[in-house]
Design brief:
Blueprint: E1 2-9, E2 17-23, E3 32-34, E4 42-44, E5 53-57, H1 68-71, E6 82-88, H2 89-105, E7 109-115, H3 124-137, E8 146-150, H4 152-164, E9 171-175, H5 178-184, E10 192-194, E11 197-201, E12 209-212, H6 222-238, H7 241-256, H8 264-285, H9 305-312, H10 318-335, H11 341-353, H12 365-378, E13 385-388, E14 394-397, H13 402-416
Parallel strand pairs: 5-12, 6-7, 6-8, 8-9, 9-12
Antiparallel strand pairs: 1-2, 2-5, 3-4, 10-11, 13-14
């Protein structure tokens, strides 16, 4: 459904990475009449939908001299001066004045909806409240894309609502967390939690444009920077040994500097780490946007973590649950001879350096056994569990037994002893 992934340097400032997922050409088809044995006619319809979305590094998204936010969604240049904006309440407190001044400077009339973030508020009633406000605003859905500014939770909520409203309303994402920059902001999945299950309701819906401004990370707490580093580490462990090496050498520095490049070494490391993580994620997503292939390397860290994260709310963050899962999966791989003892200890050491957890009391045989059973249901009756092979490669397995899981839990606890704090 997509042709290519084209990384290029943005011409405006020479520093921003622009990644475009180009569409396949639309192939119109004529319904074919099929005559079954009973000679009752039937028709088979085959069609394809081109996908075209852009992920762009954009330093200073609310700089009055930039028009990225306003030009998006108006390919013919005939943009209107109205926008509906959804913003996380914390982001609004920190950046709301600059945002309002930006739109005022460009003569744009805005309706701004401020919402509370957090995984516990990721529910369908928030989607419905947003749709009510959007309907009252009366957007021109062809030329007035919705703008969402916030973390992964807010982007997931707005993405779901936009995909439902009038069967699809264009939207623009401005992620403000590290998880948003490298994970939630670059794919096409939307969703909310339902009936005690993470992202049980959702759609595949691409934002027209995602603007990645790492300046927002300056005000992000240290724990949330660490939280996002878990998703970056995931890419390094299952796909990119060079990225793992960058985290091993410079991970603590970019954590200390909030990815703001306060030192020359930190600036180079922050740029290299972000670009490698985003490119790696998109390379994995682009050929399989709709997850028709269920063996997905990016599911590393996401086999056991959905159940653990829901049990750990509100204290546990998404990246922390993912890291706990990665630690367990790495131990499973080590016990199978796929990861050496030295490699396993390096992985745990980097997790500790990034101030990520490697053990939790929630990692019990009962909890993790139930989590694996739930994952099998989601993955069409098989485990399809991604395990690292060394550092930077992956294999999928379907035969993890209860006994093997119990042994891995015990080894994970032993390896984690003294390397990181537990997560309640």
């Amino acid at each position: 459904m997509c042709d290519s992934l084209i990384p290029a340097v943005h011409e405006k400032d020479g520093s921003a990475l622009e990644v475009v997922v180009s569409p396949a050409p639309r192939k119109p088809s004529t319904p074919t009449s099929v005559a079954p044995a009973a000679e009752e006619p039937s028709w088979h319809v085959k069609a394809s939908q081109p996908v075209n979305y852009e992920v762009r590094l954009c330093q200073g998204v609310f700089d009055p001299n930039r028009t990225d936010l306003l030009d998006a969604g108006s390919p013919d240049g005939n943009r209107t001066h109205r926008r509906f904006v959804v913003v996380d309440e914390t982001v609004d407190r920190l950046y709301g004045t600059a945002m309002r001044q930006y739109f005022e400077h460009h003569g744009v009339t805005c309706e701004i909806m401020v919402v509370q973030a957090g995984e516990v508020r990721k529910e369908i009633d928030v989607v419905l409240r947003f749709v009510e406000r959007l309907d009252a605003f009366g957007i021109d859905r062809r030329r007035e894309p919705v703008i969402v500014v916030g973390g992964g939770v807010v982007m997931d909520i707005v993405g779901l609502a936009a995909s439902l409203y009038r069967r699809g309303t264009p939207f623009i994402r401005v992620p403000t967390t590290l998880v948003g920059l490298v994970d939630a902001g670059v794919g096409v999945k939307t969703g909310v939690n339902f009936n005690g299950h993470k992202n049980q309701l959702g759609t595949y819906s691409a934002a027209t444009l995602t603007l990645l401004d790492r300046g927002f990370l300056a005000t992000l707490s240290r724990r949330h920077i660490s939280n996002g580093l878990a998703e970056i580490l995931k890419v390094g462990l299952i796909k990119d040994e060079a990225l793992f090496g960058l985290l091993e050498r410079h991970g603590r520095l970019v954590l200390d500097e909030n990815f703001q490049g306060r030192s020359p070494e930190g600036a180079d490391a922050a740029t290299a780490i972000l670009e490698a993580a985003i490119t790696g994620m998109l390379e994995e997503l682009e050929p399989n946007l709709w997850e028709e292939t269920l063996e997905r390397s990016m599911d590393y860290g996401h086999t056991f973590s959905p159940a653990v994260e829901m049990l750990g709310l509100p204290a546990m963050l998404h990246g922390e649950a993912v890291c706990l899962d990665m630690a367990l999966s790495t131990v499973l791989a080590h016990r199978r001879g796929l990861v050496s003892e030295d490699e396993c200890r390096r992985v745990f050491s980097v997790m500790s350096d990034l101030e990520l957890p490697t053990w939790s009391p929630l990692h019990t045989p009962e909890v993790l056994g139930h989590a694996l059973h739930a994952t099998v249901r989601r993955r069409d009756g098989q485990q399809r569990l991604p395990l690292p092979v060394g550092i930077g490669n992956t294999v999928f397995v379907n035969d993890v037994s209860d006994e093997e899981l119990v042994a891995a839990i015990e080894l994970q606890r032993d390896m984690a002893a003294g390397s990181s704090a537990e997560v309640a």
